[in-house]
Design a protein that fits this description.
Layout (H helix, E strand, L loop, with lengths): L15 H21 L3 H20 L31 H4 L24 H8 L3 H14 L4 H13 L3 H14 L5 H9 L1
């Protein structure tokens, strides 16, 4: 018996079984990713490109393709090979050309915006319908009385409507319920 033990020899192909299943699923995964990841933004861009291509062909089917330059000073000029079905210089299409390629970046918006104010309240504020927005905020505050964002927006709308006393009252309520927030104190100082 020796002091050093020798390990048995390794098999010639130890990972063959693992990689066999990998090569089976790789094409399936690639096909799924290429075909199954269609977003509404990508579908919209495809529809726009198809509509513009059809409009260009209907407008002028015999139009000469735009000059694209040449590869070198002695080469003949290159012309577009698609004969007007796609106009790369069309300014209407330039914004939507990258959409199919970048569609994985498009995220569908949530019904509630990032600052937790519902879109119908924001719509009223943008339309400068402040009394209606305050009424809607009061209805929402009855459902969720601890929502500080609703109270703060209500105070800001009261300031916009120059209702100083009502705005001070709303801001004081916020400071009593949420003493750690600096914004109502700052607004109260500005109103004083």
């Amino acid at each position: 018996m020796s002091l050093f033990s020798t390990l048995p020899p390794m098999p010639a192909k130890p990972f063959v079984r693992r990689f066999a299943s990998f090569w089976v699923f790789c094409p399936l995964l690639a096909a799924f990713l290429l075909n199954g990841c269609s977003t509404p933004g990508q579908q919209l861009a495809d529809a726009e490109i198809t509509a513009l291509n059809a409009a260009n062909v209907e407008k002028n089917p015999n139009a000469q393709a735009p000059y694209l330059g040449s590869y070198g000073p002695t080469d003949p000029p290159r012309l577009s090979s698609n004969l007007g079905s796609y106009d790369q210089f069309n300014p209407e299409l330039s914004d939507s050309v990258a959409v199919p390629f970048l569609s994985f970046l498009i995220i569908e918006p949530d019904p509630v915006t990032k600052n937790a104010i519902p879109s119908d309240v924001e719509r009223l504020v943008k339309a400068k319908k402040y009394p209606e927005a305050i009424q809607l905020i009061d209805q929402l505050l009855q459902k969720t009385p601890r929502n500080v964002q609703f109270r703060y927006v209500k105070a800001r709308l009261q300031i916009e409507m120059r209702q100083w006393d009502a705005a001070k009252k709303t801001l004081i309520e916020i400071t009593q319920q949420f003493p750690e927030l600096p914004e109502p104190y700052n607004n109260l100082a500005a109103l004083a």
